[in-house]
């Protein structure tokens, strides 16, 4: 439980630092078009991390409920665990998908950044 709380705080800190980095990066960027694109992109990353954290928080609650049901050993609670575990499985798939999207978007951002830098060097 303590490790989960630590990870939750670390994840919140990372999402906030990404948002802060996006703000400071866009505030000093000389190109307004790039600035708006970076800001939108960082906001997208931040929103995705919030979605991931929300699903992970839900999973934590589901796991607690599954454990309580298991400890009670009543038939109804054991049957309820089947649905809870299925929801957990679906949530894990959702987290994988969100992280996959993040990875793809992050890679695209750096490819675009490299292309922009190359184009800027050619103009000079």
From TrEMBL:
GO BP terms in the entry: entrainment of circadian clock; positive regulation of circadian rhythm; rhythmic process
Keyword Nucleus: yes
Signal peptide: none
One GO term describing the cellular component: nucleus
Keyword Nucleus: yes
Top-rank taxon: Eukaryota
Main subcellular location of this protein, as a coarse class: nucleus
Disordered: annotated span: 1-39
Chain ranges of the Protein EARLY FLOWERING domain: 37-116
Comp. bias (Low complexity): 19-29
Localization per record: Nucleus
UniProt entry keywords in alphabetical sequence: Biological rhythms, Nucleus
Basic residues composition-biased segments: 1-11
Similarity annotation: Belongs to the EARLY FLOWERING 4 family.
Name the UniProt record assigns to this protein: Protein EARLY FLOWERING 4
Organism: Capsicum annuum (Capsicum pepper)
